């Protein structure tokens, strides 16, 4: 299995692109990228949640700001939300954001 993942990296597959990471709270969405094989996040930006209609718009804005769109767009993400995420529909506890996990994953 590891050999297949390394082959993907060598061929410029999804593992060769930085992954999106984030801490989504009630006030701010803290987003960054992590390059495979490294542990230090880069392109860290705090976005005020009140400035965006939803998490998808905030993520899109972040990716545009750091130039991670199109062929450079992350294909993997790990986001922590300050609310329960057990149901398919997620409603943030301390802000106006709500989203479908399925729809979020498709974008």
From TrEMBL:
Q: Where is the signal peptide?
A: none
Task: Give the record's GO CC terms.
Answer: cytosol
Matching InterPro entries: ATPase_NBD (IPR043129), Bacterial_glucokinase (IPR050201), Glucokinase (IPR003836)
One term of GO molecular function: ATP binding
In terms of superkingdom, the source organism counts as Bacteria
Q: Name one GO biological process term.
A: glycolytic process
* UniProt KW keywords: Kinase, Transferase
Its family remark reads: Belongs to the bacterial glucokinase family.
**The protein's name:** Glucokinase
């Amino acid at each position: 299995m590891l050999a297949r993942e390394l082959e993907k990296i060598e061929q410029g597959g999804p593992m060769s692109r930085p992954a999106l990471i984030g801490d989504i709270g009630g006030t701010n969405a803290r987003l960054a990228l992590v390059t495979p094989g490294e542990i230090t996040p880069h392109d860290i930006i705090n976005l005020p949640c009140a400035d965006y209609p939803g998490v998808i718009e905030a993520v899109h804005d972040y990716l545009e700001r750091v130039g991670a769109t199109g062929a450079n767009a992350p294909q993997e993400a790990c986001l922590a939300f300050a609310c329960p995420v057990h149901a398919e529909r997620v409603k943030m506890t301390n802000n106006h954001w709500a989203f479908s996990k399925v729809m979020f994953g498709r974008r």
